[in-house]
Amino acid sequence: xxxxxxxxxxxxxxxxxxxxxxxxxxxxxxxxxxxxxxxxxxxxxxxxxxxxxxxxxxxxxxxxxxxxxxxxxxxxxxxxxxxxxxxxxxxxxxxxxxxxxxxxxxxxxxxxxxxxxxxxxxxxxxxxxxxxxxxxxxxxxxxxxxxxxxxxxxxxxxxxxxxxxxxxxxxxxxxxxxxxxxxxxxxxxxxxxxxxxxxxxxxxxxxxxxxxxxxxxxxxxxxxxxxxxxxxxxxxxxxxxxxxxxxxxxxxxxxxxxxxxxxxxxxxxxxxxxxxxxxxxxxxxxxxxxxxxxxxxxxxxxxxxxxxxxxxxxxxxxxxxxxxxxxxxxxxxxxxxxxxxxxxxxxxxxxxxxxxxxxxxxxxxxxxxxxxxxxxxxxx
Length: 380
Ligand SMILES: Nc1ncnc2c1ncn2[C@@H]1O[C@H](COP(=O)(O)OP(=O)(O)OP(=O)(O)O)[C@@H](O)[C@H]1O
Ligand SMILES: [Mg+2]
Known about the structure:
Largest sheet: 5 strands, parallel
Bound molecules: adenosine-5'-triphosphate, magnesium ion
């Protein structure tokens, strides 16, 4: 097994896709190293704000394995959306669809000639990434949610059991078998929108009012009191129960890992270097129009600063802000480009576009008037 990657090597590979989020990357790397060594691994729950990199991290693992077929064979991986599980649980044995898909994936990897026993064994040692797990709440607004309860139960069936009754798909013979699912690794992720507010409320105004003490900060010679709150410090299991994650479900996770809010430095790296960054995509578009799009450092920082003012969108805010800046140019790529076909965007361009946006409001921007004026248009 000398050729298995170390956690450090795995983390380095994942970090080419995932900016920051060291704790989550490390946790995932160790889990993957164990899994690839065919060892038992505790399930992981990832909690992090929208746009903080949860799906990106799961994809990075998939890509890492896909790029190395020998590794991929060591652990079949499947990524699903949690609410699909609830829908599927309503029409059949809970978890059966998920096992079927793992089996199909194993068949793709090992070949259609592979004996079913071997495929079942491969599937039962796989990894399941359940994304958007916060969408399967057992209660929503104090009311029980049947779909959520069913989906959590469906997952529990697989997470808990050593003998899951399962009917093989027709291509595999259609018999009823039992599958030992105790070796499956589950990594679940969710944004748990609203959790931040409810925990903040609990420690500042609710049941535990006063436990979060203000700290004194000195800024530019002035002294003021500030509440420094981080979900990681204050979240308890009960907060997740209140959110609608059942205690049985939560207890199946060995590690609950919180992703961090992305700092401006992280956002800048995502914006400039991210694999699917809005800037790169736009540059590819301008190149297709014969134009080289460049952004000065200061302009990039200005965009990042604006994006960081919308922490709830995480890195998604970059796309939204950049779009405000670039959409007028995209309509007329040559407009503003020099004779060599270089379109350089600097801070005044960014400021003008952002100011225009603020003045007009989002809806007005969709009107035709925007394109006519363009971001470099009439200095009204
Ligand atoms: N830590 C990160 N590193 C690199 N890119 C990131 C990171 N966080 C977010 N992004 C970028 O932001 C976008 C959204 O990220 P992602 O889909 O991973 O968010 P998420 O945490 O799954 O959010 P949600 O809870 O809304 O599903 C992607 O385009 C991704 O490239
Ligand atoms: Mg996601």
